[in-house]
Amino acid sequence: MGSLIEEISGKALSRRRFVAGSAALAASLAASSSLVACQPSGQDAGSATGSAESADDEGVWISAACWHNCGGRCVNRVLMKNGVVVRQGSDTSHEDSFEWLQQRGCPRGRAQQQQCFGADRLKYPMKRKSWQPGGGENAHGELRGKDDWERISWDEAIGYIADEAKRIYDTYGPRAVVGNGGPGIEQVLANMGGYLQVTDTSSCGTYSFNMTKLGLPSADLGETNDRFDLKNAETIVLVGGNSVWSSGGSTMNNFDQAIEAGVQFVYVGPSYNATAAYFDARWIPIYPGTDTAFLLGVAYEMIEQGVIDQEFLDAYCVGFDAEHMPADAQLDENFKGYVMGEYDGTPKTAAWASAICGASEEDIAWFAGTIGKDHKVMLLHNYALARCTSADNVPQLFMTVGAMGGHMGKSGHATGGAYKTFAGSHGPALAAFGDAGLPAVENPVTESITAPLLWQSILDKSFNSTGFAYSDTFNAQDIKEADIKYLSLEGAARVQNTPSTVTAIEALRSLEFVTCSSHFFNAQAQFSDIVLPITTEWERVGGFPGHQRSRETVIVYTQVTEPLYEAKTDQEIGTLLAEKVGIDPSTIWPLSEKQQFFNQILGCTYVDEAGSEQALVTVSQDDIDAWQCDGKPQEGVVALDEFLKNGCYTVKRAEGDAYVRIGYEDYIKDPEANPRPSDSGKFEIYCQYKADTLNSMGYSPDGTFKPYPNYVAAPEGREGTFADGAIGGEASAYPFIVYNPHYLRRAHPVLDNEPWLREAWPNPVFVNASDAAAKGIADGDTVRVYNAHGATLRTASVTEIIMPGCVGLPHGAWLDYDEDEGIDHAGTDNVLCGTVTSGMGTSGYNNYNCNYERYEGAALVADCALPQRIVELG
Ligand SMILES: Nc1nc2c(c(=O)[nH]1)N[C@H]1C(S)=C(S)[C@@H](COP(=O)(O)OP(=O)(O)OC[C@H]3O[C@@H](n4cnc5c(=O)[nH]c(N)nc54)[C@H](O)[C@@H]3O)O[C@H]1N2
Ligand SMILES: Nc1nc2c(c(=O)[nH]1)N[C@H]1C(S)=C(S)[C@@H](COP(=O)(O)OP(=O)(O)OC[C@H]3O[C@@H](n4cnc5c(=O)[nH]c(N)nc54)[C@H](O)[C@@H]3O)O[C@H]1N2
Ligand code: SF4
Ligand SMILES: [Mo]
User: Fold this and answer.
1) For ligand 2, is residue 72 a contact (CB within 6 Å)?
2) Among 731, 768, 739, 766, which Cα is nearest to 847's?
3) Which one of 41, 60, 209, 423 is CB 3.0 to 4.6 Å from 247, fit for a cystine?
4) How far apart, in whole angstroms, are the C-alpha atoms of residue 514 and residue 554?
């Protein structure tokens, strides 16, 4: 192992080759002056092909994992020479075409070798020096985040966790423990009594409510059309989101035919981002968190302009008007009456909407006409618009506006979610991997803490358990006592990703025990007591990325290197802990990691043109013998070795093939035979369950939500930019709305410590040019962005492509909090998010208020000029 490590540290794949090797990167470098902070000088973007594969490559190409929660699930391949990665590449399994897309990786994936082989890897189990077992004063919780570290053995580390977990369970019971469903330690904790779980609306925001009650698919994903149908639309609208940045890999190619066919694109959101630019879209600027007002104005205009598809509404929906109410309606009101102002005296006109959302009345009227019933329209939304407080009516209203235009169930028409690798294509998966064969481990504790209130709940010793996002378990307010002592951080970057970092620091210091398994010395590790080094996927036996991927592709990866240093897999760690606490690990992990991978391979399927599922991979008895695994030989369409070498299998498509799928087609053709999953079997524009449940949860005053989609003011948001909370009044102390674009440098915080990626993307704060001018701030100035929840420093990227009144602070920067100043120096987004929620308990990342000013202290140095964060053992 020693020589390999030496070789790794000695190896040099020059910065110049990396940065120059990516066209996508070169394009983004050109976008703005403040984006080129550390661009190496003298590079010739055209000349180097550092990441291309060529015939003279020496060594062996093998498929490698890129498994992060980034939205792309791409083929990643590495060229290995003498045990060292000398190049990275991507999908070469076939020529690229629209019919048969390659699943190509992005620069993050191509920099992945810096993650596995990085100097910043955690190498050994560690203990925070001042922490001692036993609880109380012994924990020295006040030193979390600023203590020294010492190396300990695996046996000591597992011993501490076993003893402390037992002590805490015995003394306080499972409500004293918080976990996240992680893959190793937390599987054992589930067997020791379980733990409180954090529920987070995370990606899909308010779409993580019980969508089936509205008649939608879960999270509104799955019922837009297959990518071959996009060209049949006249107009494609994208509301919120930024797929060019957030849906890496080949996703944007889904839109190629539509772009070539001249389809008109429209983008609705606070910035003319890279996706709007890619589409050459018409931009309708609206403030973050104001989509409900915008869409209500659109609905009013559609009614006024006579462009609604009344037949569609009558046949497929309930609650649009008094003549079509659901049987369980308790309120004698309907959506149309609300829009026309019959109940509150306020018609939701374009002028009314414009004052709230910022779009012009002309734009609202134009939009309404453009999406009217006589046009072929696809209404797509990503989820940024739902990651806002008081956005709980967005899902129902988006569906309503789609239904008003009749845009469901027909070629050229669609209404629904466009997210991650599903940004331009839906339909059942045409290729999939099999089940690993592990039994499900049940956590016996079924209570939930709502993420934006997690840290405050720890401090308050009580929480409101209202069910789990992405399920149908929502319930009325249910306050419970909990004296939380132990926080396990495994597989979720809670300290970074959960709102209100300043509260987090205080809450973390109040605990008796915090453990973390990690690759790096990130914020989770920094605030823990025992830190365990885990292997990256490159050091594991192989596997399949579990997240979304193109419907046509199944992606597989293999082992790149033996585990580095003392890192272990989650299963190995869990096994050690189970043994230590006297649980038979084979009840949790009856199969080796290799057998699990082999089972997944054997279970891979593809869908043939006749629509039936077939085995994908040919596996011979020789293969089974060589793998020393259990299984039966099978016939597929790709040999095992070839599949693993390619890193994927992609179903080849053709114009007019049997795989084209139009969302909601079954329902529209025969609604009786194929009812929607709501109580009425139809799309519920009036949904009693929605109003009753949201009003009862205790995060908004009772009566806030109507059964139809009504406008609800945000706790901060647009209203909070005015001193008295009334639109149009005097400016408040925090007159801007800050939203968090998911950023190219990283996947959430993951990868943010990698030198190449820091060099490529400097992580500025995006501010509007006229706002900046009014404050005397120039591009590149260091600014302090602040609000009632915290303050952070960033370099200003002054731009015309963001609306006045808005601030774009990229998501996921690694916390660098100066406690004396009370200022984070890294641009950590959750420093500016508060313990403020509403509706379903939404993590409303995109509509907090803030202000900013030129920073009078020392100017920031570029992130890439800072030393890499590496733990020092004291
Ligand atoms: N302010 C603000 N906050 C946000 C957002 C925002 O826009 N603004 N976005 C939100 C969204 S949409 C999401 S989805 C969440 C994501 O929040 P999280 O669910 O916390 O996601 P990740 O950051 O991907 O965290 C995964 C963690 O697991 C670690 N890890 C990776 N592989 C392994 C492994 O094999 N074993 C173990 N044990 N650990 C592993 C990674 O290093 C990382 O620390 O963040 C949310 N937070
Ligand atoms: N590189 C990279 N890719 C990622 C991730 C990552 O961390 N890094 N994270 C992944 C995850 S888990 C997720 S959930 C997705 C998120 O994917 P997206 O939903 O595409 O994410 P955002 O980057 O938040 O979208 C930001 C854009 O949405 C618009 N916007 C912001 N707020 C609002 C609003 O209230 N209304 C409207 N109409 N528009 C708004 C702005 O124009 C902004 O440019 O990205 C995934 N992909
Ligand atoms: S988009 Fe995500 S999965 Fe694809 S290469 Fe980039 S980081 Fe990896
Ligand atoms: Mo997400």
Assistant:
1) no
2) 739
3) 423
4) 37
Task: Say which range, 11-15, 626-630, 643-647, has the weakest mean pLDDT.
Answer: 11-15
Q: Which burial class, exposed, middle or buried, applies to 416 when counting CB atoms under 10 A from its CB (0-12, 13-18, 19+)?
A: buried
Q: Compute, in angstroms, the gap from residue 747 CA to the centroid of ligand 3.
A: 9
- Would you state the pLDDT for residue 874? 75
Instruction: List, as one string, the DSSP characters of 115-175.
Output: HHT-TT---S-EEETT--TTSGGGG-GGGTTT--EEE--HHHHHHHHHHHHHHHHHHH-GG
Residue-range domains of the chain with CATH: 126-202+434-650 (3.40.50.740), 219-427+663-697 (3.40.228.10), 719-865 (2.40.40.20)
Instruction: Check: CB of residue 807 under 8 Å from CB of residue 766.
Output: yes
107 CB within 6 A, ligand 3 = no
Distance 154 CA to ligand 2 centre (A): 40
Whether the Cβ atoms of residue 374 and residue 387 lie closer than 8 Å to each other: no
Amino acid at 464: N
User: How far is the C-alpha of 806 from the C-alpha of 785, rounded, in Å?
Assistant: 12
Closest atom of ligand 1 to CA, residue 742: 7
Query: Ligand 1 pocket by C-beta < 6 Å: which residues?
Result: 69, 182-183, 202-203, 490-493, 497, 517-519, 524, 534, 570, 740, 748-750, 811, 829-830, 833, 845
The band of 53, judged by pLDDT with boundaries at 50, 70 and 90, is low
Phi, psi at residue 738, to the nearest 5°?
A: -105, 130
Query: pLDDT tens for residues 323-332?
Result: 999 999 999 9
Q: Is 704 near ligand 2, meaning CB less than 6 Å away?
A: no
118: nearest Cα among 2, 37, 11, 1: 11
CA dist 319 and 314 (Å) reads 9
Do 157 and 125 form a contact (C-beta atoms < 8 A)? yes
Helix, coil or strand: residue 87: strand
- Closest ligand to residue 243's CA: 2
Q: Contact 240/384 with Cβ under 8 angstroms?
A: yes
Cβ atoms of 772 and 703 within 8 Å: the answer is no
The letter for the amino acid at 361 is E
Element (H, E) at 462: strand 462-464
Residue 656: other Cβ atoms inside 10 A: 8
- Is the per-residue pLDDT at 433 higher than 90? yes
Q: Is 388 in the pocket of ligand 2 (CB under 6 A)?
A: yes
Residue 48 CA, ligand 1 centroid: distance in Å = 34
**Which residue, judged by its Cα, is nearest atom 1 of ligand 2?**
744
* Cα 240 to ligand 4 centroid, rounded to whole Å: 14
Cross-strand bridge partners of residue 649: 554
pTM for this one? Answer: 0.94
